């Protein structure tokens, strides 16, 4: 997708997404055979439920139908939320990931897997899990130290209530 088409789609769709109380996180157009797929990713601090996704999808579809933003030809509109292993790019993404386990690729090389405890304007406070029976340790990362960050899926995390009992 050209930058101008991406910018045009964002300018067209972002106000509609915002009016539904959501953030427009990503727009992507892919060709699948002869058809095109427009993927729109939305989110909010509280997450987005299926009713919100359906409402946004209808609003975006109506707006796209009344404009030529997608040009001639068929396309499929897919509206969803970021996946379980979402990449953290914006400050709000880090705030939303508080309490989650994240894999950080460091700008200086290396990586850290840690739980986000707090986020402020300069960086994140982390809890790095202990290895082989050792206690967890605290660590601070400034945003400029982070090259890439991605939420990790946890299948066996104990509920905080269980840990406190």
Layout of helices and strands, plus pairs?
Elements: H1 3-19, E1 23-32, E2 35-43, H2 50-66, E3 75-80, H3 91-96, E4 101-106, E5 111-119, E6 123-128, E7 137-142, E8 146-151, H4 160-164
Parallel strand pairs: 2-3
Antiparallel strand pairs: 1-2, 4-5, 4-8, 5-6, 6-7
Helix pairs in contact: 1-2
- Tally the helices: 4
Strand content: 35-45%
**What would you call the structural class?**
alpha+beta
Specify Rg, calculated over alpha carbons.
19 Å
* Largest β sheet strand count, sense and barrel closure: 5 strands, antiparallel
Amount of helix: 25-40%
Order of helices and strands: HEEHEHEEEEEH
Per DSSP E runs of 2 or more residues, the count of β-strands stands at: 8
Distance between the termini: 52 Å
Main sheet: strand order: 7-6-5-4-8
Mean pLDDT: 87
In the predicted model, the low-confidence regions spanning at least 5 consecutive residues are: 161-165
C-alpha geometry: elongated
Word description of this protein:
It contains 4 helices and 8 strands. The chain has helices at residues 3-19, 50-66, 91-96, 160-164; strands at 23-32, 35-43, 75-80, 101-106, 111-119, 123-128, 137-142, 146-151. The protein has a 5-stranded antiparallel sheet with strand order 7-6-5-4-8. A hairpin with an 8-residue loop joins β6 (123-128) and β7. The longest helix is centred in the first third of the chain and has 17 residues, at 3-19. The radius of gyration is 19 Å and the shape is elongated.
């Amino acid at each position: 997708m050209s930058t101008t088409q991406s910018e045009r789609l964002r300018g067209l769709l972002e106000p509609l997404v915002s009016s539904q109380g959501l953030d427009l996180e990503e727009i992507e157009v892919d060709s699948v055979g002869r058809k095109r797929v427009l993927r729109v990713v939305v989110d909010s601090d509280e997450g987005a439920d299926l009713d919100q996704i359906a409402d946004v999808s209808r609003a975006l579809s109506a707006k796209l139908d009344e404009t030529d933003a997608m040009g001639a030809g068929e396309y499929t509109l897919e509206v969803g939320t970021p996946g379980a292993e979402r990449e953290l790019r914006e400050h709000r993404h880090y705030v939303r990931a508080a309490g989650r386990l994240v894999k950080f690729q460091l700008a200086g090389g290396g990586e850290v897997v840690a739980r986000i405890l707090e986020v402020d304007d300069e960086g994140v406070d982390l809890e790095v899990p202990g290895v082989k029976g050792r206690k967890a340790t605290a660590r601070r990362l400034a945003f400029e130290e982070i090259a890439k960050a991605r939420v990790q899926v946890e299948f066996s995390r104990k509920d905080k209530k269980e840990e406190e009992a």
